Amino acid sequence: MIHKELMTIISTNRIAEDSIEMVLKNPCISEIAIPGQFLHIRIGEKTLRRPISIADCNREQQTITIIFKINGAGTEELAMYRCGDVLDVLAPVGNGFSIDKESPSTILLVGGGIGVPPLYFLGKTLKDKGYTVVSVLGFQHKASVFYEDEFKALGETIIVTNDGSYGEKGFVTDVLDKVPTFDSYYSCGPIVMLKALSTKLAGKEGYLSLEERMGCGVGACFACVIPTKDGNGYKKICKDGPVFHAEEVSL
Amino acid sequence: MIHKELMTIISTNRIAEDSIEMVLKNPCISEIAIPGQFLHIRIGEKTLRRPISIADCNREQQTITIIFKINGAGTEELAMYRCGDVLDVLAPVGNGFSIDKESPSTILLVGGGIGVPPLYFLGKTLKDKGYTVVSVLGFQHKASVFYEDEFKALGETIIVTNDGSYGEKGFVTDVLDKVPTFDSYYSCGPIVMLKALSTKLAGKEGYLSLEERMGCGVGACFACVIPTKDGNGYKKICKDGPVFHAEEVSL
Amino acid sequence: MTQLRVELPGLSLKNPIMPASGCFGFGREYSEFYDLSKLGAVIMKAATGSERFGNPTPRVAETASGMLNAIGLQNPGVQKIIETEVPFLAQYNTNIIANIAGSSLEEYEYVARSFNDTSFVHALELNISCPNVKEGGIQFGTNPKMAARVTEIVKKASKLPIYVKLSPNVTNIIDMAKAVEKAGADGLSMINTITGMQIHLTERKPIIANKTGGLSGAAIKPVAIRMIYEVSQQVKIPIIGMGGVQSAEDVLEFLLAGASAVAVGTANFQNPFICSDIIDALPSTLEKYDFQSVQEAIGKGILV
Amino acid sequence: MTQLRVELPGLSLKNPIMPASGCFGFGREYSEFYDLSKLGAVIMKAATGSERFGNPTPRVAETASGMLNAIGLQNPGVQKIIETEVPFLAQYNTNIIANIAGSSLEEYEYVARSFNDTSFVHALELNISCPNVKEGGIQFGTNPKMAARVTEIVKKASKLPIYVKLSPNVTNIIDMAKAVEKAGADGLSMINTITGMQIHLTERKPIIANKTGGLSGAAIKPVAIRMIYEVSQQVKIPIIGMGGVQSAEDVLEFLLAGASAVAVGTANFQNPFICSDIIDALPSTLEKYDFQSVQEAIGKGILV
Ligand SMILES: Cc1cc2nc3c(=O)[nH]c(=O)nc-3n(C[C@H](O)[C@H](O)[C@H](O)COP(=O)(O)OP(=O)(O)OC[C@H]3O[C@@H](n4cnc5c(N)ncnc54)[C@H](O)[C@@H]3O)c2cc1C
Ligand SMILES: Cc1cc2nc3c(=O)[nH]c(=O)nc-3n(C[C@H](O)[C@H](O)[C@H](O)COP(=O)(O)OP(=O)(O)OC[C@H]3O[C@@H](n4cnc5c(N)ncnc54)[C@H](O)[C@@H]3O)c2cc1C
Ligand SMILES: Cc1cc2nc3c(=O)[nH]c(=O)nc-3n(C[C@H](O)[C@H](O)[C@H](O)COP(=O)(O)O)c2cc1C
Ligand SMILES: Cc1cc2nc3c(=O)[nH]c(=O)nc-3n(C[C@H](O)[C@H](O)[C@H](O)COP(=O)(O)O)c2cc1C
Ligand code: FES
Ligand code: FES
Q1: Given C195, C199, C244, which is nearest D257 (Cβ)?
Q2: What is the CATH number of the domain that holds B172?
Q3: Which amino acids does the record list as binding FAD (chains A, B) (predicted)?
Q4: B223 CB near a chain D CB, below 8 Å?
């Protein structure tokens, strides 16, 4: 169930070019949030809330971490919020990644840009459950890379930059041959990346976290629908997603 | 000439019910402002600026003082500004009170509610020039009274409240017989008060500071016009006013 | 105690507040935030003859104090709505208003008649801001004759009171209102969204896949107030007002302009509790402005 | 170096930015803030046959991301404007556009002809959002035939290029645009304000003495963009776009929608330097979005 909660900003840091990491205090959400879910954040007087993934969650310290890129008026305003400021959020929103493998196995995480944050919370959770985690993270260039060490702490991690200014050069899909064999993959990033990836990994069991412009964020307005593969249905990204089985929806 | 200036709030105090006194630092405006002029203040993202009179001006300390009543969304937002915050203002706006008497004489100041602030800067200036100042200040009730001591320091001061909860009971016009003879009067307040006053003091030389909803505040949009007594003309309150000779405009 | 009750054709409202069509789905999602029995009524998402998948995405964009939407009447179709959605809402002690849409007179008639099969729906809101495919796609809602025609047909087909939802995208809103009143409308609902567009600077194309979308939110409130103020003086049937309502003060402004009840749309996205919050604030707001009841405030802002 | 220059009928603009009519008076006040020679052009406050005192006050109200105004075409009359205002503006190295209004075809014709007497005015902006007193007060701008008629007459009377300023308060903006193009308009100017109202809760009456006022500001930008996008594909004459412009990004959005130049109105009240600031920001903004010139951006947001 979605709650409307107030979260106090207890830290805010610029961790990469135009990228902000914020740690938010909230007992209720930090207790129930699962990887892949997001916060629907009200910013100033903006008409629409902004969906931002839960990048980390600390049940003991009762904190939620978000990482967002300044991408327009709203995130620009959010970036100016300071410690002690209070955010009005709807949370936790969405279904999250389903972690259903019986026997702990090897999982590949593939993230692109602002799709990287939710994979960190997922990776940590998988590692805790005994899975082997391999990460491939794509960024624009060196300056936009973040959380490399954090992911390395979870397992093998390959960084890819479009211009090769750091790590491998190219797209995440260019380095898939470099990763060890894995049982299933979880990915979040731009639609073009998800398309290329799911085509390249067709047959493999995969889960994709999708993005779309949202209105309500709770499933009431039909703004964020995506057609299902069978052709005669649709899913709401905010409510039925944002995570879908790669076979389920047609990108 | 009107300047677009930034003014830093160096103090803000609640001096009466819903009434805020703010001291603003600005070298340029504090040097040139004269009594009766106002600031046209930008507040957040509001479409229109808010006109607020200059209640005091300290040329040495380079400060401008404003006193405003919380009267709606804009003043409510302005009241939440804190020390150190910077205001975007157009100033000084308007003609101000003309102080043209050759021989210093006795001047009556009549203010009502939010019309009181500009009279303080005027009274101080008059006193410095050697005039005798008598003030009649009208407020809703006891809780809304402000600057009584400040005006007393300028000369005889009569406080009137509509409900009689403090000072005399009734309207400013009810106590005019109590004031000593004077040569001319300067007044600012609600239009109804100005009407009653100018009728009662017909014949006496008087100056009235008027209020009207404004657009540009610089004389370009024709939002704030008032017809002249001769019937076939008009004046712009923001540019030709806000102060007018009582005989000049028809209220 | 101020009195919130309002009596309208087919609708005995415990208070004048209801979520606007399309902004509240069929109530399921918001029922997790508060008890829908608190609402004066619920206006359901548009129902069409058969299931519709709507427009491609993106379907929404944000504008200054507003938003654009081009959902495209996505809905499971009138039969499915009657089977699965209406019974859900019927559990709550509130009025159910069905918003009906179509691309032809026949479709409107079919949808209207279909709602005769359920006893849970109290009134129909006739959404005439839809293109008439048989007439070159011009909207029913922008032509008085076509608006009157669809109103007549729906009125004949249905046993429920009909509130015709007017489009603001017209030269003369009064002509539209009079035309549908004459055609038998029991009430009016206004305003629907104003057609707008936003262009993405880097992509160099409209943000909304449908190119244009409907502008809603606080930005359009002055247009809604103006149209309701003008129309309420020219018709005898009651008006459900909407367009940018965000607070109890806004509700009072709509009542003063001549609306008898008020729907809240876009504001639900900002605050899922908005309808509930407004209902809580309404009594004190009415008192603050010296009104004893909602009924007393209706039309009181009209200068004659 | 990006190129800001734009060539329009009668107007050789060093840049596409000009203050909108009624929001800049006759330039005197804003000339104290910056050198008006910086502007592509100046559109003067409306001129009528003889002096007008306009509507009673209050004449303005603030709305969400916008404002309402009902100034009522207050102006000293065309002769006085030609004698005293035009010469003032003529000192500056910019284009002068005269906005003309009237209550009858005769008045429009007289005002238009009067501007033939000065060599300083480069074009006329024909404001057709005025009631035609002889035709029961319906606006010239809401009826294609009347709009075409007044355009023809003004075109005949004047030796200057005519930009017809369209009202957005119509069902079909394309019909209006085509009608005035056919009638000889050299260009279009759009949009004028959208009719709205705000009611004062304590006073229980409209805030604006005229009851209704014209809505302007950021709130109406999506409507302006939509109408310009639609019209620019249906006419061959250039469009001066306006409606809620507050930044160089907004200007680019109007260019992408099909406008060839852009006027800034309400934003002058927020920031008296806005036109100057936008002109300074325009080159880098064009570069940021990969345009070499203003000319190159015109209509580039149109999906075909
Ligand atoms: C489920 C989900 C999770 C997300 N998680 C993250 C995250 O963890 N970190 C991060 O940096 N970004 C994330 N995003 C993208 C983020 O929501 C957008 O970058 C943000 O909404 C942009 O808002 P703005 O005001 O800066 O941009 P503007 O362009 O000013 O926004 C205008 C409107 O468009 C919407 N919008 C613009 N871009 C996007 C987009 N890419 N996706 C969805 N809506 C958009 C905004 O929400 C707003 O409604 C996520 C998006 C979704 C759907
Ligand atoms: C020349 C002049 C000097 C003033 N000096 C002072 C002063 O020193 N102290 C003080 O408390 N007030 C003063 N006022 C009144 C003050 O401008 C209004 O109280 C204020 O604008 C209200 O804004 P708001 O956002 O709180 O109200 P809102 O109702 O939210 O304002 C909406 C719009 O209406 C306008 N408006 C509302 N009430 C008034 C009003 N009474 N006069 C003019 N515009 C109004 C606002 O400026 C704004 O454009 C002065 C007004 C004028 C014209
Ligand atoms: C996302 C969205 C979907 C809508 N869907 C419908 C609809 O299906 N039928 C309808 O008559 N109006 C629909 N509307 C219009 C609203 O019911 C309402 O008339 C309009 O949004 C103005 O109110 P508001 O400003 O409070 O949102 C929709 C509006 C929005 C924002
Ligand atoms: C105070 C005010 C006065 C206006 N006067 C005129 C006018 O005299 N003639 C005219 O054609 N348009 C007039 N307009 C309309 C503007 O020129 C412009 O078309 C409209 O305001 C939209 O632009 P904006 O949102 O940038 O203000 C006026 C607008 C305002 C706000
Ligand atoms: S955003 Fe409203 S249904 Fe998903
Ligand atoms: S406010 Fe524009 S002329 Fe006075």
Answers
A1: C199
A2: 3.40.50.80
A3: 50-53, 74-75
A4: yes
Overall size of chain C counted in residues: 304
- A76 and A43 in a common domain: yes
Residue B240 lies in a domain: no
Are residues A114 and A178 located together in one domain of the fold?
yes
Task: State the Cα–Cα distance between residues D245 and D224, nearest whole angstrom.
Answer: 10
Question: Residue A47 and residue C65: Cβ atoms within 8 Å?
Answer: yes
Structure confidence by residue, pLDDT tens digits, D128-145: 988 777 777 778 999 999
The pocket around ligand 3, CB under 6 angstroms, is made up of A 215, 221; C 20-23, 45-46, 69, 71, 73, 99, 127, 165, 192-193, 216-217, 220, 242-245, 264-267
pLDDT at position C2 is: 61
Q: What is the rounded distance in angstroms from the CA atom of residue B165 to the CA atom of residue B161?
A: 6
Of the candidates D139, D159, D160, which has an alpha carbon nearest to the alpha carbon of residue D150?
A: D139
Interchain contact C207–D (C-beta under 8 A): no
Range of the domain at A57: 3-93
Residues B70 and B113 in one domain: no
Low-confidence ranges of chain A (pLDDT < 50): none
DSSP state of B35: T
For the stretch C43-59, pLDDT in tens is 999 999 999 999 999 99
- Total domains, chain B: 2
Counts of helices then strands in chain D (DSSP H, E): 10, 16
Interface of A with C in 231-250 (CB under 8 A): 234, 239
The closest-lying atom of ligand 3 relative to the alpha carbon of residue C221 is 25
Tell me, yes or no, if A224 comes closer than 8 A to chain C by beta carbon. Answer: yes
**In the numeric block, which tokens belong to residue B199?**
């009728």
The residue written with tokens 């404001």 in the block is D127
Whether B8 maps to a domain, the answer reads yes
C74 touches chain D (CB under 8 A): no
Handedness of CA B240, B244, B247, B250 (dihedral sign): positive
* For the CA of A68, the nearest atom of ligand 1: 11
- Mark which residues 45-84 of A lie under 8 Å from C by CB: 45-49, 74
Q: Write down which residue in B67, B93, B119 finishes a domain.
A: B93
SS3 D73: coil
Size of interface B-D (CB pairs under 8 A): 96
**Residue pair A159/A181 in contact by the 8 Å Cβ criterion:** no
Does residue B116 share a domain with residue B83? Answer: no
Which of D68, D194, D256 has the CB atom closest to C199's CB atom?
Answer: D256
* pLDDT higher than threshold 70 for residue D1: no
- Eight-class DSSP state of B228: B
Complex prediction ipTM: 0.96
> Which residue of chain C comes nearest to D298, CA vs CA?
C204
Co-location of B88 and B110 in the same domain: no
Please write the tens of the pLDDT for every residue from B102-112: 666 899 999 99
> Are residues B47 and D24, on separate chains, in Cβ contact within 8 Å?
no
